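Sample entry follows:

:::
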Amino acid sequence: DELLEDRAHGRGIAPDEAAIAREEATLLEFLDKDPARARTLLDEVRARQGLGPTRWRALLRRNAVLRALVAPDVQVEEAQVAAAHDAAHGAHRELRLIAVPDLRAAQQVTDRLAKGERFEDLAALVSTDRSASRGGLVAPISRLDPAVPASVREALWALAAPGTVSPPVLVDTGYVLLRFEREQPADGVTLASVHAEAERAVRLAQERARMDQLAQEILRAVKPTIFDPAVQDSWDRVRTGATRSAPPPPG
């Protein structure tokens, strides 16, 4: 908190009550579209995490300060808005995937599929992705979904018909093979009708990512002397979380 306040002071940033209230309103909107339901969910979260009035206000203030610090670095482009709209309202394809560490393993999977083994069975047996327990089934993907690697999206949407399998696709963790299951049509909501909503979603996502990066940067620079073992354990867990930077697996 002290280091964050120092940075804010150096930039002339001092969130007012309106900024703090917007942080809570944004969270409520994220929890549920129904205001009453959202408030109930928030109360439950606060109760589980022991966030009384003082700690809750401090958390909201930290978020407001972080958001103000990163705001100048956020640039929303029209292509990002279109991708956010496509992810929310465009056509989606359901798929299964098998993730393997290298091209040799991918070729072995391809050979076993050619001999008649079922894709979902092989996914359960050899896939390194967390979807293996579901036979490789992952959440549906849109053509422009920014949360999915472009190579995966392009390979999936290049498949002509349900049941077809892609060639091995290179990703950060190795290779994946994809099977197109079925397609869910777009819901008909046009970009023009929800442009402001899609633009705001992109801005919030960028702000959140940059806020996390800034918080991690601040934590990495701190080397406190801790005398209480319980506090030391908590601090170690926070530090571990702050230094994890590897992307999640495709599924």
User: Anything to note?
Assistant: The longest strand covers residues 174-184. The first helix runs from residue 2 to 10. The radius of gyration is 22 Å. The beta strands are 92-100, 137-142, 169-171, 174-184.
